[in-house]
Amino acid sequence: MGHTKPSLDWLQDVSIFRVNRLDAHSDHRYYSSMASATAGLPMEMHHSLNGSWHFSYAVNPASRISEFYEMDYNCSAWEHIQVPGHIQLQGWGQAQYVNTMYPWDGLADLRPPHISQDHNPVGSYVKHFDLPAHMQDKPVYISFQGVESAFYLWLNGEFVGYSEDSFTPSEFDLTPYIRDGSNKLAVEVYQRSTGSWLEDQDFWRFSGIFRDVYLFTVPKHHVWDLRVKAELDDRYENGTLKVDLALRADPSAPVHALLELKDAAGRTCLTETNEFQSGMLEVVAEAGRVHLWSAESPYLYSLQISILDEHGELVEAIVQKVGFRRFEMKDKLMCLNGKRILFKGVNRHEFNCRSGRAITKQDMLWDIQTLKRSNINAVRTSHYPNQTLWYELCDEYGVYVIDEMNLETHGSWQKMGAVEPSWNIPGNDLQWQDIVLDRARSMLERDKNHPSILIWSCGNESYAGEVILNVSNYFRETDPSRLVHYEGVFHNRKYDATSDMESRMYAKPADIEAYLQSQPAKPYISCEYMHAMGNSVGGLHKYTELENKYPMYQGGFIWDYIDQALVKKDRFGREYLAYGGDFQDRPSDYSFCGNGLVYADRQITPKMQEVKFLYQNYKLEPTRTHIKIVNESLFTGTDHLLLEYSLYRDGKQIRIWQTNVDVEAQNQISIPIELPHMEEVPGEYCLQASLKLKEALLWAEAGFEVAFGQKIVAIQTPSDRSLPSGALKVVEGDVNIGVMGKDFSVLFSKQVGSLVSIRYSGREMIAVPPTPLFWRATTDNDKGTSLGFTAGAWYAASSARKWAKVELQQTSETATVSFEYTFSIHSEIRVRTAYTVYADGVIRVRTCYKGAEGLPNLPIVALSFKMTSEYNQSEWYAMGPEENYIDRACGARLAVFSSPVDQLPSRYLVPQESGNRTGVRSVKITDANGLGLMIKADPLAPVECNVSPYSAFELEQANHHWELPEVHYTVVTVAGRQMGVGGDDSWGAPVHDEYLIPSNQDLEFEFYICGITVKE
Q1: Quick count: other Cβ atoms within 10 Å of Cβ 594?
Q2: pLDDT digits 0-9 by tens, 754-780
Q3: Three-class SS string for 650-681?
Q4: Which residues participate in catalysis according to the annotation?
Q5: What does the pLDDT read at residue 724?
Q6: pTM score over 0.85
Q7: What confidence tier does 717 reach under pLDDT thresholds 50, 70, 90?
Q8: Environment class of residue 952 by beta-carbon count within 10 Å: exposed (0-12), middle (13-18) or buried (19+)?
Q9: Residue 55 and residue 187: Cα distance in Å, rounded?
Q10: Helix, strand, coil: what percent of the chain each, to 5?
Q11: Order of strands, edge to edge, in the sheet holding 238-247?
């Protein structure tokens, strides 16, 4: 589209989305020498304009400084803004988080393509720069890698162009306007435009120049576009290299291209020299037997392209990384290099808690290493094309990519969860086709040469219709080497042909099985599943168990990788991670932005423990005589791994072995092992086996554990019913019952109805007496199922109870005090807790819950008490080391581990139940001197435990961590059972039945309390 005079009408004209913008092209790098190209140096023909720009902000177009771009307008008194960066995170405007609704919902009565004239923030940017000497007398272009959501561009007072699409490059030719010496570049950025209707993703709503800006020039003969196809024969052994080159201009004299394909060791595999015809060149060359690219073995060749002028002189050098691989639909299965692929994936937003979507190379390196270290083999770029560097890293490190175009119109067809597409866009409205297709073309043309990209995605949650169907066909026609994905056809099967695979969001395991059992025509993936909001990812194993059961189940992508939370300061100046609504942004979807396996500050959450285990390609199944190793990798064996296995007794390592193993891909073996005769020394034995890296890789150090398995064997102690010797003194008063022995005393109160004091060596252990607990601080998933509404009776029962009976029973060696409690929520509910005190000061605590019909499921059945906060250290012998729950314990291992009490709760955005451990054999709660008490349980009947600075009720009442009270206690909760955390979704999916606690189910558990009076 050619225009010389800009118009604000373009902002809501669906037919105008680019003015004078250059056509999209490949993202290859180019240099003046091959030495620089092979070294991957910064491109000398680029000149960064990142940094400080003059800036003016206006709340709407009418209040902007409209003539700021003119040469005689002096903006030296303006404030400054950093580029790249968001306007809203640098002191102007307002950050706003919404999920599915449009951000103006309820504030402006709008329908597409119209936008508000009253609230459309405008950022006016000015950058003065001197034209670099090496660009003088050459063509000069400018590239904006990402601007949200629309912008106008001027240079030296002359209008250059206009562009929409926030997440792909916008490039312009500055040559007619550039001057030697000083230049004035002016950019006017609008938060709202027609494009805003197409960018209703689940993310913070920002605006501004948030990706790199740079000038670039090109040599006399420049490859403007490069297309590389590295194809395989039907045996997946021999490669064919197809290269299409397009020069910027048709040369007047002969120009040749020398192509050399080099392997990873630098050896030349093929050489071709050809002449351009009319500025175009197509090369097809046989590469012979090649190494294949996959996420398991991301082997990259280097294609060195030398552009030679009519004298044979080098004018341009290009090095393009090449991966030989074939991705195809074969017998209704998605196959990579002939093998059925499984996506062990995650959705990833580009995000940084301080700079929003303006992320850095360091962020991306941390992310790619975290994916690999967590056995995540695939990523979906939800829901927009990412920075080019991300795809380069996925090529290099080995991660499969669903590359998703910048399209989501969620608020146009789904309202509060209900499908209502009466004004859906783009739908079948062909006036939207060009603007949508432009986004697809911009993504494909830039990203087409990355072997990591297996699938093009037509966007996200935009319903279905002819426009998106046409986009999918564009992908197929332009690039037959990849498949096409789109989930939205689930809501309108008329357009089922849009997607090559069946893709659903948050389908329950049973629904997926029903599809797979229906003789389907397409393989299945979950493009989003396991909504990892807060304390979640329970039941992940139910999905991964489908992998080997149904060939047409081909994995999924967890939602999502990182919490989208922003650093903010509370009223006292302390930083915290803020969510929607914390910036007074309305409307807002509040904490729904916190769904990450990684906290917003790039620390790994406990949920990743489960993901890493269930996503591992190597399954280890130890027994007392063998270790079975199942290699589910498609292409790689185990020669790069070392098998290490250890034997533990009661949590202490007694022996460790290491050996090499050779298990080819898609095979399994059993390794014979010899263990000591465990029967000779009774105890609980745990055999743990690991596969560890022999040598360091890009993403992990040598010795890093990539796979794990364990086997627990209990060797019973011969029956010994002898009780500890010693004298017990029992005093039954009118109000209290006291039990005393050597260096300890225990006091029970009939008035309080509980144990009220334990003293070991004169030190008081109990700050607040034990009481039955049926409530946990609701998790995000609990709130999604309205647990507070349906099961709130258990909150009441936990807050108040009435003791119905107190009994004292004595023997010569023990004293037992029992309390029986009744509850107002139901006359038949009973809890009986019996404390048996032994002569050595050990107390056995046995709790029996007697259930009743007609009540909601219980969140937890536990006993909870408080110690003073000086007891702030913990050491566990339990399933860990990270928090785990009955439906999220596959990745936990039986181990001894320790932690300060204040670090046991997890840092989910909203305070909630966290920090639980299952399979607890013992936990010590001590002070800085190692003194305190220990909770112990029989290994054959372990308990669950939670140790926290906060009670369930304090957590329940807090929406932010800064709302929690100052720490006064250490709260110890010992549970016979706690319900699972769930995770199929966070807006109504229940915890699976086997992980619930029915109210009519009787339940008993017991544990022991022991004093720790000497530091061990």
Answers
A1: 23
A2: 999 999 999 999 999 999 999 999 999
A3: CCEEEEEEEEECCCCCCEEEEEECCCCCHHHC
A4: 461, 528
A5: 86
A6: yes
A7: low
A8: buried
A9: 10
A10: 15, 40, 45
A11: 223-232, 238-247, 280-289
